[in-house]
Design goal:
About 30% of the residues are buried. This protein has 9 helices and no strands. The C terminus is likely disordered. The radius of gyration is 18 Å and the shape is globular. The chain has one domain. The longest helix is centred in the N-terminal third of the chain and has 27 residues. The chain has about 200 residues and is an all-alpha fold. α2 packs antiparallel against α6 and α5 runs antiparallel to α6. It binds zinc ion (ZN) (2 copies).
C-alpha cells in the first residue's frame, strides 16, 4: 500500500494541493460544495423544458452510472497506479477515521467536464439531469461512507448494517468488495466476497 507522505519529489504547488486532501476543513468544504453542485445541476435541468419521462430517465440513468463509476474509481484509481488519489485512499485504509477527501471543487470540475460534451450531444437539459443524477449518486456514496466510519450507531436504523460489513471486509481484504453503496459491480467483475468480519476488527 502507498504511504501518505506528501513531501516527496513532487513540485511544491502540487504538494500544496495534495495536502488539502488531508485537511479536515477540506473534508467539510468538499461535502458542502458537492451537495450544492448536485443541486445546481438538477435545478438547471429542471429549468429547461423537457418531457417528464425523459427527465426521470436521465436522472435514474445518471444515478445508476455513478454505481459503476464508484466501482471503477475505487478499484482502478484508489487501488490503482501510484497517484494522489491512491495515496489519499491509502491514508483512509491506514486510518478509517481520518477525514480524507478529494480537494474541494475537484468533483465539481469533473462533473462540468462530463456535462460539456453531453450537453453538446443531448442538449443542456438532459445533460444537466444526467450529471445531476450521477452527482446525487456520488453524494449518496460519500454520505453512506461517512456514516459507515463516523456514525455507526445510525447504520441499523438506516438498514445499512449489511453494507457496512461488506465494506468492513474490503478494509480487511483490499482485493475484493470495491462497491460501497451496492454489490452489483463486484458480482459482475468477480470481486464479490461475502462479508464476514466484525465491527471491532475493522482498521
Ligand atoms: Zn472506508
Ligand atoms: Zn479501498
Amino acid at each position: 500500500m502507498d504511504g501518505v507522505n506528501v513531501t516527496g519529489a513532487r513540485p511544491l504547488a502540487f504538494r500544496r494541493i495534495e495536502s488539502l486532501v488531508y485537511s479536515p476543513l477540506n473534508y467539510t468544504l468538499t461535502l458542502l460544495v458537492d451537495v450544492a453542485g448536485a443541486a445546481g445541476f438538477l435545478l438547471a435541468g429542471l429549468l429547461k423544458p423537457l418531457p417528464l419521462g425523459l427527465r426521470l430517465l436521465a436522472v435514474v440513468a445518471g444515478f445508476a452510472t455513478w454505481g459503476l463509476l464508484e466501482y471503477i474509481i475505487h478499484r482502478w484509481v484508489g487501488h490503482g497506479r501510484p497517484s494522489m488519489a491512491r495515496r489519499g485512499h491509502a491514508a483512509h485504509h491506514a486510518d478509517a477515521m481520518a477525514r480524507v477527501a478529494s480537494p474541494a471543487f475537484m468533483i465539481l470540475g469533473g462533473a462540468v467536464l462530463v456535462w460539456l460534451p453531453l450537453a453538446a450531444l443531448a442538449g443542456a437539459g438532459a445533460a444537466s439531469m444526467f450529471v445531476g443524477g450521477a452527482y446525487a449518486g456520488y453524494n449518496h456514496y460519500a454520505l453512506v461512507h461517512h456514516i459507515m466510519h463516523h456514525h455507526e450507531q445510525l447504520l441499523p436504523r438506516l438498514g445499512l448494517d449489511r453494507l457496512q460489513r461488506y465494506h468492513d471486509s474490503h478494509h480487511q481484504n483490499q482485493t475484493a468488495n470495491f462497491g460501497v453503496t451496492q454489490t452489483l459491480w463486484d458480482r459482475v467483475f468477480g470481486t464479490y466476497r461475502p462479508e464476514r468480519v466484525s465491527k471491532t476488527s475493522r482498521s
